[in-house]
Amino acid sequence: MAARCAQTTHGHPTGYYAAGALAAIVAYLTRGESVEGATLRALRLLGRHPGHEETSAALNQALDLAAAGDPTPEKVERLGAGWVAEEALAIGVYAALVTHRVEDALLLSVNHSGDSDSTGSICGNILGARYGDGALPHEWLEQVEGRAVIAALADDLAAECLRD
Fold it and tell me: With a threshold of 0.85, does the pTM exceed it?
């Protein structure tokens, strides 16, 4: 469904498949998968669709870089700048995979010379689905404008999803 919706704004398969892959990763995470497991399952799902190759290659590169050890800004730059969908997805996934703390993942995902708000948003969606807002530093949460409204909406959404 996410890939179909993204077709309204992304005419190229890589753009809408990246959106679909992120939605699949988030869905798998909410069912208890690890970030790596969710990414691998999303890759299997992508493989069923013609034109998936660029998105799949970017995700595989993120998995390979994460397996190669400690995070570095240079490794982030190898994934691209995030100005196109598959690069932004790869950077967000890489940051979520390679770090051990939520704060480190978020900082890694935004501290590069590219489209850092997109890559940070993708990483934040992944980490939020995996760990919830309880994993964020309290001093970060205190600064979020409209936090009470956001929390209420998130709780309502979670409750609605549990009914399914």
Answer: yes
